[in-house]
Amino acid sequence: MTPQAYWDRAADTYARDFSDSLSGRASRRSVWRALDQAFSPGQRVLELNCGTGIDAVHLAARGIRVLACDISPRMIEQARRLAIQANLSDRIEFRVLQNESISALASDGPFDGGFSSFSGLNCVQDFPGVASALARLLPARARFIAGMTGRLVPWEIVWFLAHGKPGKALRRLRRDSPYFNSGPVQVRNYSVKEIAVVFAADFRLTRWEGFGIAVPPSYLEPWARRFSGTTRLLAALDWRIGRLPLFRCFADGVLLEFERR
After folding, report:
1. Is this prediction's pTM over 0.85?
2. Average of pLDDT values for 125-136?
3. Is residue 197 part of a domain?
4. Which residue, 6, 45, 132, 226, could crosslink 183 as a Cys pair with Cβ 3.0–4.6 Å?
5. What is the Cα–Cα distance from 237 to 113, expressed in whole angstroms?
6. In whole angstroms, what is the distance from residue 16 CA to residue 49 CA?
7. What's the start-to-end Cα distance of the chain, in Å?
8. 182 with 151: CB under 8 angstroms?
9. Which CATH number goes with the domain that contains 162?
């Protein structure tokens, strides 16, 4: 199975498995806070690995135009449907395109900014190449938000150790992790410092935060729903501690804001 086929198959259950989960909603709230602070109405931004279009529709509702790209035709199909339902399809253009091929967007740029949420950049084979291609699409001072996997997640470590799976408990500390166990997608895990180095030639890291610190990961959704009141309290806590220097190091995901040099 190819990565495209894998994501096509995942598209049908993506909302159930992540977007509609309690932890998924809490994480997306953090992503939207970062996007809302980075981009303004009237701007035109590039979205990589847009999935089912939830973030693109959120920005379009704020008066921001989006060119949203994804490797999966099925994801793009669902994203278009969501944009039509929201009556925002005139502000969003969709493109079936993998991250490694964004240099093909040269004639569509420059963009006022860009973003990639929920670990899409962790899945690329040539991360420095994508960062370099992205730089050619953005003007000086443009912002780019990179949503990446966290490396040290207490929830994950405790859960898998308690179930006798030390390999899974520490899997994110390995550079190449079998994070997507059922498909051909290889996830490469990076520290914040390593990510900043990849972008350093063309971008300056201005700030970063974590999400999914207090809230359990989405694969613990049965537990989260069983104790939904506790999960809501943890989500409120997550919102407050995501930017604190110590706590952000123990996040399921991190959001890094870069400025084009």
Report:
1. yes
2. 97
3. yes
4. 6
5. 30
6. 18
7. 39
8. no
9. 3.40.50.150
